[in-house]
DNA sequence: GCCCAATGCGCC
DNA sequence: AAAGGGCGCATTGGGC
């Protein structure tokens, strides 16, 4: 499957929602009749049974059919959940959103394209402080020029670079950037485009990311700023159950490498404190930094310096990500826990004497960069698999909780964010949902790692506003 | 007018 | 508070 050339199914995209006309389904075979050979009477390249049969054949020939079929099942449930979440929608209060915007930016301008009052005030202040009356603070070019003329030394206008600088204009400028960003990304225009009948309906793209993570197209659901999460408010008599997996990716690394020490460090609840307790590093902040470095491939800075300590304390876990990085540099495919393969890179390890030293050096850096990708791929991709299994298990349990009701009449998933879910639930069911979500996290661990004693603790909150969940 | 790259920043 | 991985989106500013 992964090796197969893209076919007509891959090209479907949004068109999948359009019914195919003039075709009646097979009359005598049922979808789950596995014992019957699935010989389709049609040559339609979009025939679902044909595709299903191709997948079965491919599975049977795979290295580990049990794991890969689990991945297929998880992906299938994920696709269903994505459609259901879009159907149900995330409860969204237009008035709460407007209130947030008005507080931060000033009231919505009556003339389209005008700056809201507070933003306009800041723009004038920056112009005056930089002595640049024509300055458009939204134009990086313009801004860089004005800063240089005012004697501020910088090569870019990125917020984190500006923060290092000393000039009276910097503070209002940073404030302006934050506000301008809110207006452009999630302002009134966004509200008009994406919220209908009190619901935000993101267009999820399951498996849209190369690692297996979901993507979205339009609406930017996976980048929903914390600033506006106060607009996510349940219906009257309902609650939001917000659950996120604590330190998911480091725990995934511990589990997939079966690094006993790291698994035990996570057993008490805070993996980073566990790492400190083991004596590997001195502070929680160091533990976090070192783990991030291990998973992303940090080479410099404090993160890079802490890596050897981590490698001494947790040799198996670190060896696993190092191996993934080296494999990537050689152009090899690496794989997640359930068998999703990475794309094949170019082999940059072999010596090619037709290249100039500069070319060889560029080639090496390209290889290292690909190695950082494959290093992260196995962790990010397996975390995505855990999240799919988690959601699938949540859905099964929600189904059992409220059998025989419509999706939106009983507790249902309304939002997903890589390691976090939101469930819209009648108030009286919220406690039960909070319990079931934690049970599902245990089950996800079992589905991926069998009997390994790994824990995936959650932070669960029952709230009346999304941003009330910490 | 449309198309595209660069820039910057939101999320995990 | 970036560095190191993965994304999507709005805006600017250049090309045609």
UniProtKB/TrEMBL annotation:
Gene3D superfamilies documented for this protein: 3.30.70.370, 5' to 3' exonuclease, C-terminal subdomain
Class in the EC hierarchy, top level: transferase
Region annotation (Disordered) ranges: 331-366
One GO MF term: exonuclease activity
Enzyme Commission code: 2.7.7.7
Chain ranges of the DNA-directed DNA polymerase family A palm domain: 225-429
UniProt keyword annotation of Hydrolase present: yes
Keyword terms: DNA replication, Exonuclease, Hydrolase, Nuclease
Highest taxon of source: Bacteria
The reaction(s) this protein catalyses: DNA(n) + a 2'-deoxyribonucleoside 5'-triphosphate = DNA(n+1) + diphosphate
A Pfam family assignment: DNA_pol_A
CDD domains the record matches: DNA_pol_A (cd06444)
NCBIfam families per UniProt: PRK14975.1-1
Protein name: DNA-directed DNA polymerase
Biological classification of the source: Bacteria, Bacillati, Actinomycetota, Actinomycetes, Micrococcales
């Amino acid at each position: 499957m992964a090796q197969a050339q893209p076919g007509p199914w891959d090209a479907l995209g949004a068109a999948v929602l359009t019914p195919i006309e003039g075709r009646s389904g097979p009359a005598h075979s049922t979808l789950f009749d596995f014992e019957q050979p699935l010989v389709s009477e049609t040559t339609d390249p979009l025939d679902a049974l044909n595709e299903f049969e191709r997948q079965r054949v491919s599975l049977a020939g795979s290295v580990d059919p049990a794991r890969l079929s689990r991945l297929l099942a998880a992906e299938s449930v994920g696709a269903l959940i994505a459609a259901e979440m879009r159907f149900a929608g995330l409860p969204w209060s237009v008035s709460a959103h407007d209130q947030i915007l008005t507080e931060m930016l000033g009231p919505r301008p009556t003339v389209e394209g005008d700056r809201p009052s507070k933003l306009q005030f800041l723009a004038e202040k920056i112009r005056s402080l930089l002595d640049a009356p024509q300055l458009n603070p939204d134009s990086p070019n313009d801004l860089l020029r004005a800063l240089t003329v005012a004697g501020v030394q910088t090569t870019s206008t990125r917020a984190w670079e500006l923060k290092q600088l000393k000039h009276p204009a910097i503070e209002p400028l940073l404030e302006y950037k934050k506000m301008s960003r809110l207006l452009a990304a999630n302002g009134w225009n966004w509200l008009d485009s994406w919220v209908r009948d009190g619901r935000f309906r993101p267009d999820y793209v399951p498996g849209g990311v190369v690692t297996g993570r979901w993507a979205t197209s339009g609406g930017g659901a996976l980048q929903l700023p914390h600033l506006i999460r106060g607009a996510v408010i349940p219906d009257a008599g309902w609650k939001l159950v917000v659950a996120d997996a604590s330190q998911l990716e480091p725990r995934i690394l511990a589990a997939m490498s079966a690094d006993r020490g790291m698994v035990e460090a996570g057993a008490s609840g805070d993996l980073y404190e566990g790492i400190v307790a083991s004596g590997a590093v001195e502070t929680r902040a160091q533990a976090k930094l070192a783990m991030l470095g291990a998973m992303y491939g940090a080479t410099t800075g404090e993160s890079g310096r802490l890596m050897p300590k981590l490698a001494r304390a947790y040799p198996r876990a670190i060896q696993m990500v190092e191996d993934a990085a080296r494999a990537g540099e050689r152009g090899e495919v690496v794989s997640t826990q359930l068998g999703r393969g990475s794309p094949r890179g170019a082999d940059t390890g072999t010596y090619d004497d037709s290249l100039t030293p500069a070319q060889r050096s560029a080639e090496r850096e390209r290889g290292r960069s690909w190695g950082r990708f494959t290093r992260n791929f196995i962790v990010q991709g397996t975390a995505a698999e855990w999240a799919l299994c988690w959601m699938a298990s949540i859905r099964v349990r929600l189904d059992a909780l409220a059998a025989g009701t419509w999706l939106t009449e009983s507790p249902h998933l309304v939002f997903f964010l890589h390691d976090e879910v939101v469930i819209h639930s009648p108030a009286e069911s919220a406690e039960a949902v909070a319990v079931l979500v934690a049970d599902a996290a245990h089950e996800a661990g079992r589905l991926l790692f069998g009997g390994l004693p790994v824990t995936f603790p959650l932070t669960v909150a029952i709230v009346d506003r999304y941003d009330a969940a910490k």
